From TrEMBL, chain A:
GO terms for biological process: amino acid transport. Its main location: membrane. It comes from Siculibacillus lacustris. GO terms for cellular component: ATP-binding cassette (ABC) transporter complex. Belongs to the binding-protein-dependent transport system permease family. HisMQ subfamily. It is a multi-pass membrane protein. This is ABC transporter permease subunit. The keyword Transmembrane applies. It is found in: Cell inner membrane; Cell membrane. Signal peptide: none annotated.
Automatic annotation (TrEMBL), chain B:
It holds the Pfam family SBP_bac_3. One of its GO terms (biological process) is amino acid transport. InterPro entries: Bact_solute-bind_prot3, Solute-binding_3/MltF_N, TAT_signal. The keyword Oxidoreductase does not apply. It comes from Siculibacillus lacustris. Residues 1-29 form the signal peptide. It comes from the Bacteria. This is Amino acid ABC transporter substrate-binding protein. Belongs to the bacterial solute-binding protein 3 family. The keyword Signal applies. Keywords: Signal, Transport. Residues 41-269 form the Solute-binding protein family 3/N-terminal domain.
């Protein structure tokens, strides 16, 4: 696990077998038993060709035309929720994009929350307080030893058991919790979206700038000059966009007809999926964190205490940085599973990528194309997650080496 | 119509592999019929909706569609038990049929032009005329579909209902929020828990679903129908002979009812002097010999499962728990739409 993330992919050649010259390289490439290798290759290619021919003839017999032209055709189904605008009659491409956006949203939020919760649980598991560590241990065992699908059904059923929209709880003014979801005030939708986007961007740029300045003040090496420049460059246009849009109006969720309308609603399906994925992954992450902390030699704890550091600082400044060496590579694989597990969304009715692609396949009959898309998109997502994990790991290693 | 849990990726993968591998030896005449004869068994994809298709307490499949499957086994093998029924969800069933997992779907598939041309299916005669309905909570006070503006509506994925409801709301320029659920139990639970205001699905399915809810009287099936849902047997394109066997097996049950031939009196009709009935029951063997089927196939079907009306009454008729009236599914001679072409 460790090496997989620390090292880069290399072509493995036994060093003492290397033969000189072009002929030698060819011999290395072909290997020890060229005839057997060739036969195996021809055999595999033959099987591949046979399957391909059968596929082509059978598709022709069924009258199916392979291709991705259907992506531009109108999709006549409705999608319950999506971060991007979609309505029945938009293209299949846009519908799939909406599904992808849902998957990305729930996975990203899940990874973030699961990491936070997992670290907290992992640390609590090591607590000297037997009540705390025992409770956490029990929780982790329950979560790790029951199927995720069952957990999703559990969370979904729990959220559906909330009162209906007419009897919604209002824990805070303007916030309504019912079996239709958690509705809270949000900017009204009419023409203010560029303003919302602009304001968000401006806020992000400000936070980024603040962080960079803080680091410059603390750190010895003046890093992050480029980031500061980008932040400053973004700030101007972001403010302009914020001012150019319609004036921001906060909209309160209100009961209208059957549903609570206005504001922003977090649906029970999204919440159940997010909670389910977060809780499920956090149990694994907690164990990883615990293992990582335990891998730090006792002497480090004792030395840190000896110089008079309070317990939380011992953990934060001495132990966790060393534990991360073990934790980060495994953490990335927890994120990977979470991302892929999000496809269980179909079972509880959240319109994720798989759900939309299944419907698309069902309506258009382009099953092969949709499976190809599904595999391609999940592969891309997974690669992005591992690239993120790797980048974090390398950055950490670089800093450690500094 | 109805279905099972999430194994879509497997089903889809099986489809890809199936297209590639399962039907490698593509015989010229009729690959499906050849495979059925070699196997000695017809593989039928069904759903689970008591009345239409459900295993009884002894595990034997019973129901309206199931009886047509048995009738097919009589036509092909002269044995109503040489047929295997497997439950398949609406999302999985079409790829499963395409890939050769089933020889025929008797799972309440709606006949549509898209499925005929784009999905490569052929369809047998309509065995049940249905329409899309809405099942709502009585306390909402809704009387027609248009009252549901702004409502949250539960939809089962893989059904024509998913498209119909979107069309309906676009046409009427009203809004709704869909919750698309694959699993049948979760689908019904969403209505009971109040997560959705209404469920939409083939009306016959909803009527059956209503009887299975904890408090059926709290819910009402709106009288309005949003669509035409002609439910038909579906087969893969490319095997005309198999399709004709399906067609004429269904027609035999309809023609028998038209003649007034029932499971109980079919033997008396063997003595009939009516040349049409003689041809139909195979007393006059010339027809059967000409078409290459057992001349007495219609006789054997009626003897084994009864005529169309008997199949209807036994499984879903007014005296059953499901309690459907014949309605459109009455014989054409009695004002319905059920009609058989002539047997000659």
């Amino acid at each position: 696990m460790h090496g997989a993330f620390e090292g880069r992919l290399v072509h493995y050649v036994a060093p003492d077998r290397k033969r000189p010259g072009a002929r030698g390289r060819f011999a290395d490439w072909v290997g020890e038993r060229p005839v057997a290798q060739l036969l195996l290759f021809v055999g595999l290619a033959g099987i591949g060709a046979l399957l391909w021919t059968a596929l082509a003839t059978n598709l022709a017999r069924l009258g199916l035309t392979p291709g991705f032209a259907f992506l531009g055709h109108a999709a006549n189904f409705e999608i319950g929720e999506a971060p991007i605008a979609y309505a029945a009659g938009d293209s299949y491409g846009r519908a799939i994009l909406a599904g992808l956006a849902n998957t990305v949203l729930v996975s990203a939020a899940g990874c973030l929350l699961a990491t936070i919760l997992g670290v907290l649980l992992g640390v609590a598991r090591l607590s000297d307080n037997p009540l705390l560590s025992g409770t956490v241990a029990g929780f982790i065992e329950i979560v790790r030893n029951t199927p995720l699908l069952l957990q999703l059904f559990f969370w979904n059923a729990t959220l559906h058991a909330l009162p209906g929209p007419r009897q919604a709880f209002a824990p805070l003014p303007g916030v309504k919790l019912s079996n239709r979801g958690l509705a809270f005030p949000w900017f009204s939708d009419d023409g203010s979206s560029p303003a919302v986007a602009g304001a968000t961007l401006a806020l992000l740029a400000l936070v980024g700038l603040g962080l960079a300045l803080r680091r410059r003040r603390r750190g010895p090496a003046p890093q992050g000059g480029a980031a500061t420049a980008v932040g400053l460059a973004l700030l101007g246009p972001a403010f302009v966009a914020a001012l150019a849009g319609a004036p921001l109006a906060l909209e309160l969720p209100q009961l209208a007809g059957f549903n609570i309308r206005g504001g922003l609603t977090l649906t029970p399906e999204f919440a159940a999926l997010l909670i389910g994925l977060t809780v499920n992954a956090s149990a694994g992450i907690a164990e990883t964190v615990r293992g990582g902390i335990l891998s730090v030699p006792r002497g480090q704890w004792e030395a840190a205490r000896a110089v008079g550091l309070p317990p939380m600082k011992v953990l934060r400044l001495v132990v966790l940085p060393q534990a991360l060496r073990v934790i980060v590579p495994v953490l990335a694989s927890s994120w990977l599973s979470l991302t892929k597990n999000s496809s269980l969304a179909v079972a509880i009715g959240f319109p994720d990528l798989v759900s939309i692609l299944n419907t698309t396949a069902n309506v258009t009959g382009q099953s092969l194309e949709t499976i190809t898309l599904m595999m391609g998109l999940y592969l891309t997502l997974s690669l992005l997650v591992s690239v993120t994990g790797n980048a974090w790991n390398e950055r950490r290693l670089r800093r450690e080496g500094r | 119509m109805t279905f099972q849990t999430a194994r879509h990726i497997l089903a889809a993968g099986a489809f890809a592999l199936g297209l590639g591998a399962a039907s490698l030896p593509a015989a010229h005449a009729g690959p499906t019929l050849d495979a059925i004869k070699a196997r000695g068994l017809i593989k039928v994809g069904v759903g689970t909706s008591p009345g239409f298709f459900a295993p009884d307490s002894s595990g034997k499949w019973q129901g309206f569609f199931v009886d047509f499957g048995r009738a097919l086994a009589v036509t092909v093998f002269d044995d109503p038990n040489k047929v295997e029924f497997t439950n398949s969800s609406p999302q999985q069933r079409l790829p499963a049929l395409q890939s050769g997992e089933f020889d025929i779907l008797l799972s309440g598939v709606t006949q549509t032009i898209n499925r005929a041309f784009k999905l490569g299916f052929h369809f047998g005669p309509v065995v049940f005329y249905d329409g899309q309905g809405l099942l709502v909570k009585k306390s909402l006070g809704v009387t027609k579909a248009a009252d549901l503006d702004g409502a949250t509506i539960g939809i089962q994925s893989g059904t024509t209902g998913e498209l119909n409801i979107a069309d309906f709301f676009r046409k009427t320029k009203k809004k709704f929020t869909p919750v698309v659920i694959e699993e049948t139990k979760e689908f019904h639970k969403a209505l009971e828990s109040g997560r959705v205001d209404a469920l939409t699905q083939d009306a016959s399915d909803l009527a059956i679903a209503r009887t299975q809810l904890a408090k059926p009287d709290d819910f009402v099936l709106l009288p309005e129908r949003l669509s035409k849902e002609p439910l038909v047997p579906a087969v893969r394109a490319g095997d005309d002979r198999w399709l004709e066997i399906v067609n004429w097996t269904v027609y035999a049950t309809i023609q028998a009812e038209e003649f007034g031939i029932t499971q109980a009196n079919v033997d008396e009709f063997l003595k009939s002097e009516d040349p049409g009935i003689k041809r139909f029951l195979g007393v006059d063997k010339s027809l059967g010999e000409a078409i290459g089927l057992d001349p007495a196939f219609a006789y054997k079907i009626v003897k084994a499962v009864g005529n169309y009306g008997e199949i209807f009454d036994r499984n879903i008729g007014p005296k059953t728990k499901v309690g459907f009236e014949r309605g459109y599914n009455q014989l054409w001679t009695k004002g319905g739409l059920i009609y058989s072409p002539p047997f000659r």
